Amino acid sequence: MRNSVILMPEGQFTPLSQLTVEGMVSSAVNLILIVASILFLFNFLVGGIKFMLTGGNKEKLETAKRQLLNAILGIVIVFSAWSILGFVGDFFGIDFTTFQIPVF
Questions:
Q1: Paired residues of 100 in beta bridges
Q2: Whole-angstrom distance, CA of residue 101 vs CA of residue 25
Q3: What is the largest CA-CA distance in the chain?
Q4: What is the rounded CA–CA span in Å between residue 40 and residue 63?
């Protein structure tokens, strides 16, 4: 007797027949936040290493400071936009994390 072969992946995968626009938008928002956080961490660490390795060179010091500042500003902008989306969503009754538009 042969064992049956399961062709569907197990875990938290959604079958394509159940994929919706709402789910894709929600996943895209979460993916953007994750990528922005990883880029911030990488940029901040590289800027910190450059800051420590300037060796007294004022030009390199300013470049490192600018990179650290840009990393912090970038993450603040991304999470401020996320917060604003949350406030706008609460005001209009739209949940942007799951992208469910209320039906009247």
A1: 95
A2: 12
A3: 76
A4: 16
How far apart, in whole angstroms, are the C-alpha atoms of residue 78 and residue 23?
A: 21
Closest listed residue to residue 22, CA positions, set 79, 100, 89: 100
SS (H, E, C) 26-88: HHHHHHHHHHHHHHHHHHHHHHHHHHHCCCCCHHHHHHHHHHHHHHHHHHHHHHHHHHHHHHH
| Average pLDDT per consecutive 10 residues, the chain (104 residues; last block may be shorter) | 64 71 77 92 96 92 96 94 84 70 60
Residues contacting residue 53 through CB under 8 Å, at least 6 positions apart:
60
Return the pLDDT at 56. 86
DSSP 18: G
Phi and psi at residue 100, in whole multiples of 5°? -105, 115
Strand partners, 95: 100
Q: How high is the pLDDT of residue 85?
A: 82
